[in-house]
Each structure stands twice: as C-alpha cells, then as structure tokens.
Amino acid sequence: MTEKDLENYYMELLELAHRAMPDDAEDLASEVVLSALADIRAGKQIENPRGYLKTLLSRRKNDILRRKYRDSCVVWDDGSLLSLVPDKKSREYDEAEYSRVRRELSRLNLIYREVLVRFYIRGESIDSIASALGIPVGTVKRRLSSGRERLRERLVMQKNSELSYSPKNLSVSIFGEENRNGEPFSLVNNSLLAQNILVAAYEKPLGVSEIADSLGVPAPYVESELERLTTGELMGRTPGGLYYTRAFVCDVSESRGDIPAEEELAGQLAKPLFELFSRISLPERLEEKPLETLKLFALNKLAVSAINSVESEIVRFPELPERPNGGKWLAICTIMSAADPKYSCSGPAYSQRAGNGGGFVADFQSVFGDTHWAYGSFAHPLRLWDARDFYLDLASGRTPDQYALEDVPDFERLHIVRRTDEGLKLDIPVLTKDEYERLNADCATASAEFAKILAEPLKKLIEARKFDVPRTVDEREYFVHYGAARILPLALMLEAVGTGFVKAELGKTPIIVAVL
Q1: Which of 246, 270, 290 is the last residue of a domain?
Q2: Hey, is 218 helix, strand or coil?
C-alpha cells in the first residue's frame, strides 16, 4: 500500500471510525492515517490494506478510550479550565455539568484536546508539553487558547451550531451545462434549508441527526432535503449513511482572492495591456457609448483568455462529470456575505437564439451597469432569454414581444435603450457575425502576447492562494487555487476607465453585446 492508496481509503476509513466512535470519528480516523503513514514511510509492506486498517483502527480506538477514561473531569470556572473531581464534600455540584464538560472536551480535535488534558488535568507545564509533543512553546499556547475558545463555544451552543440561528445564503454557479430540469440551481434556489445543509456537511461527512442538530431542525425535514440533494448530486452518501457535500463551498470574500494584490497587479499590467489592445480593430460605425461598451467587453475577453492560458499551466482544468437528465457540471456554492460591490459580477452570460433569424447576446453583470441580475425585478419580470429576444428583435427592426415592451422604462433606467425621434434605440453595441469573428481573432492574438507578460506575476499570485478543500468535493484539486485571479479582469477594466483609456461611466455603461 502506498500513500496514494491510503488517501483512496480515507472515506471508507472515516465511515468505519464513525461506526466505532461517533463522537470521536474524525480524531480516530486521523490517528489511524498517521500511524499508517508512519508504517508506509518506514518501509512496511502492507499486503491486505483493508484488514490492516481495520486492525489499526481497533488499536487506536482502544488507545483513545484508555486516555478518555483515565482523565479527570474538567469544569468551566471564571473563564478558566480547572482540574476538578467531585468529592464527598462537593456532591451538591451538578454532576450533569461535569459529564457535559467531559463530553465536549472529548469531542475536540486531538491537537486541542491533547494540550488541554496535559495542561489542565495532568498539570504539565507548557515547556514540558512542547518538549513531549515536539512543537514550539508558542504553538502550545495558541492551541491552549484556541482549545479553550472552542470548548466554550461547544458548551454554550451545545449541539446547535451557528447555522441554527444565523443561516447562510448561498449563490450557486457552475462550470458546464445545467440539467434539463434546472439542476443544480433548482435544488437550492429558494430553499434556505438545502443551502445550509450543504454548508453543515461540507468539512466532514455527517449523519442525519448530526445535520439536524447542527441546524436546529427536526430530522424528517432534513431527510427529505438530503434525498433531493443526493439524487441531484450536490451531495453524496456513504454506504454507512453519512452525507457529504460534493460542491465546492467558500465565502464570497474568499472567492475573490487577494484583492489588494490583484489591484496592484492590474496597475502594473495596465500600460502593456492597453498597448496590445490598441491593435484591435473595432467597428468605426458605432456611436460613442456602444463603442466604449464594446471596448470594455473586448478588454474582459482578452484578459480572461490570457489568465486562463496561464492558469492552465498550473492547474489542470477538471473533467466535467456527466449528471442526470443531460447535465454536465461542477458546482461552486458561494456564501453571500458583506463584500465590496465593486467586484460583484456575473458572466458574460451567452444566450443563443435558434429561430427568428438567429443571433446571440453576451450579457455581463458588473459595476459598470446592471444587466441579467436586474431582469427579474422589472415591473414585468423577464428571464435572460426574454431580454435577449428583446435586444435582437429591436436591433433587427422586428417588433419585440409586447410583454417585453411593457418593460421599456426599466430598460431605459438601466441605460440599455433610449428614445429617439425615430423611436426606441438600443444603446449597446450591435455587431454582425463577421465583425464579431474579427474581434475574436484580434483578441486571441493580443491575448497570446498578454499571457507572456502576465505569466510570472500571475503564477506567484495563484500559488500564494490555497484552499483546504475536503476530499469529498468533486475534482477537489482544481479548487485548491480557486479565485486567485477572480477580480483581475474587472480590476484591469476599472484601470482602463480610471486612466481615461476607456470613456465609460460606472453604473451607466451596462456591458451587453448583441450579434446578428
């Protein structure tokens, strides 16, 4: 058995640990892995991995039980942990409190539990603990502090987690194509319970009761959502009945990388980028505002292509798993928290029309102007393809759908259309297919040159950004460096406007391009 083989056995090992010691499953599995790694690196030949791991798990379980029941009780008193065992003179002390503290201490991760037990129960000094564990004194102090805080939180919250009183709101995005019935979006949209189940079971697999306790809701409600999420493949289920999240989950602030570093890099790259961009041919017939909008669109296209080229040398783009009902995707669940709205964006979302003359629309939601995020809040709510048809009909001289025409005041408010003496007119760039193909070709040439300039600084930015992605996430390796350059294209676009290279107004230059 190799170290790689051991990683492949981890989920099976965690499930066995959960059956053996539900309250200490993660610690038990971790101790088994560490013991197995030590044997592998010492050159031990392991012919029967499953049998070996089961035997090792049984031994480590006994070790944990011996440690747990040999230790004294601990209680919370004036903000400190004390070594106390109730005696005949203190029987009036609530025995349940001792039991509760002992239970929660046993559920802490090993790195915290070990130093707390040594320091508060066995009376060892910080120096002796550091020496025994082979770690710095400062690390012992930090673990004692963190362990106390974690124990305090567990005693206050008991079983319910923060999710029970402060649920998270998730926004789902995907690489690939959604299922015909709208999955994975339909699995979580408008379901706060489903969203928080994904968060609860993200870091490690949990049983139904553990998820229900964490969210503070009855188990039957959780079970029905778990069935939907598992069938839809946003979650998975082990043979032993533990559930785990298969999508990548991160906070919106984390998903945007190191924003100051990206902004600094954008400032450094602006001049060479603008020089390359000046070689791109743009349709001279466009009026000023559509022309400036097209410049922003092309800048984004150029930058994203160059970034993807450099990233592909560092991170392999994953295979997109085939999903039920025709889907093929990987899902990213972003926890929506307070974040700088300057870098809130989506797209470009491309929407193709098959009939009525064809054509397509690229629709980019950004700080430059609201687009597809706003359509649902119109007086008569529209979907992306409804707006697409409105733009293409108006651009080609056809009469738009009456339902969409009733939303003209909203389109005007967003600076997408304007009224003229000749009637309604799109205030966005409209290109022919030939013009769009030439733009693509010019952007591809400039992007290849820009990638050479971008390579070294971007590699440093990407390598400095690492997530600890759980083993249960689909294509987990891809997400380790996720979001390292997420806002860099938009930061470059803002540099273009800030330096006057592009004459556009924030909030009044929605980036929508129609191609006939």
Answers
A1: 246
A2: coil
